[in-house]
Amino acid sequence: MSDKLYCCLLLCCLTACGSPPRAPIEDRNSPAPRHNPPVYRSSEAPAPGSYRVRRGDTLYSIAWRNGLDFRALAAANGIAAPYTIYPGQLLQLKAAPVRTPAASRSESARTVPSTSKPSATKPPVTQPSPASGKKVIAVDASPPPPPAPPQKAVGAWRWPASGPLVRRYSSTVHKGIDIGGNRGEEVVAVAEGVVVYAGTGIAGFGELLIVKHNDTYLSAYGHNDRLLVREGQSVKSGQKIAEKGSSGTDTVKLHFEIRRNGKPVDPLQLLPAR
Question: Closest by alpha carbon to 42, among 1, 89, 98, 8?
Fold first, then answer.
C-alpha cells in the first residue's frame, strides 16, 4: 500500500514539473499608453503681473485681453509654437523682445532710402605659419545671420458685415467699431487666416472669434449669436464665420477690432471706404 502511494506522489510531481508556464495575458481592449499633459495645481492667487491659465484659454486670447503681442508673451514665458498652454499654468504678463519678420512690399507704406555708406569689405589677414614659415591667409568664414523671412501680407481687407456703423473707434474707451443690423445676419472674415480663439472666455465680448491673418495682424468679431468655425480652422476672405447677435450686450450688433502687433488700431484706416 505504501509503494502505491509513493508511486502516485512521484507521478504527480513529474506531471507538475513538466507543465509549461502560463503565457502572459494581453488586454487588447485597454488603450495604448499616451503622453499626458502636465498638471498644474495651485490654490494660490497669481501675483500682480501674472495670470493663471483657465480652461478654454488660448495664448492668443490671454494676449488679446492684456494688450500684448502673442509672440512677446510666448517668448517671455518660454513657450514655443504652436503655443500650447495648460489649465493652472502660471504666465508672466510681460513682453519679451521678438524677432519681427520683414514686412512685404504690399504692407509697407513707403521705403526710405538709406543714407549710410556701405561698409567696406575686410581684406583677408596674412599671417606666418609657425610650422613651415609660409604665409597663411586667414579668412572669416562665418556668414552673417540670415534675415527673418518675409511674412505673408494681408491681400485686401473687406468689411466683416453689412449694416450701419453705430459706434466708432476710440483709443481710450472703445478699441473697435460697432456695426448694427439684424439677428442672424452673416459675419464674414475680413481676410484669410486661422481661427485662434472661439468662445466666451473674454468678458464683455459675448460669443467671440479671433482670427490670425499673419504674425502682425489679428481681427476679432464679438457679440455673435452663433459661431460657425472652430479653433485651428483656416478661413478665407469673405467666408461666413458667425451670425450677428447680442451675446454679452443688450442690442444686436457686431463689435469688430483689428490688432497690429498686439495693439488696437482703428479698423476704418484699413477697411475699404463704403
Answer: 89
**CA distance linking residue 90 with residue 80, whole number of Å:** 16
Judged on CB neighbours under 10 Å (0-12, 13-18, 19+), 160 is buried
Per-residue pLDDT tens for 225-259?
999 999 999 999 999 999 999 999 999 999 999 99
CB contact at 8 A, 243 and 225:
yes
Instruction: Give the separation between CA 255 and CA 91, rounded to whole angstroms.
Output: 28
The model carries a pTM of 0.65
Residue 38 confidence class, pLDDT cut points 50, 70, 90: low
Render pLDDT for 84-99 as a digit per residue (tens, 0 to 9).
Answer: 999 999 999 987 776 6
- Helix%, strand%, coil% for the chain, nearest 5: 15, 25, 60
DSSP 44: S
pLDDT category of residue 122 using cuts at 50, 70 and 90:
low
What distance in Å separates the CA atoms of residue 41 and residue 151, rounded to the nearest whole number? 38
CB contact at 8 A, 234 and 217: no
Mapped onto helix, strand or coil, the DSSP state of residue 271 is: coil
Quote the strand ranges of the chain, DSSP E: 50-52, 90-92, 125-128, 135-138, 165-167, 177-180, 186-188, 193-199, 207-212, 217-227, 234-235, 240-244, 253-260, 263-265
C-alpha to C-alpha distance for 264 and 32, rounded to whole angstroms: 46
Q: Is the peptide bond before 82 cis (omega within 30 degrees of 0)?
A: yes
Contact status, residue 218 vs residue 212, Cβ threshold 8 Å: yes
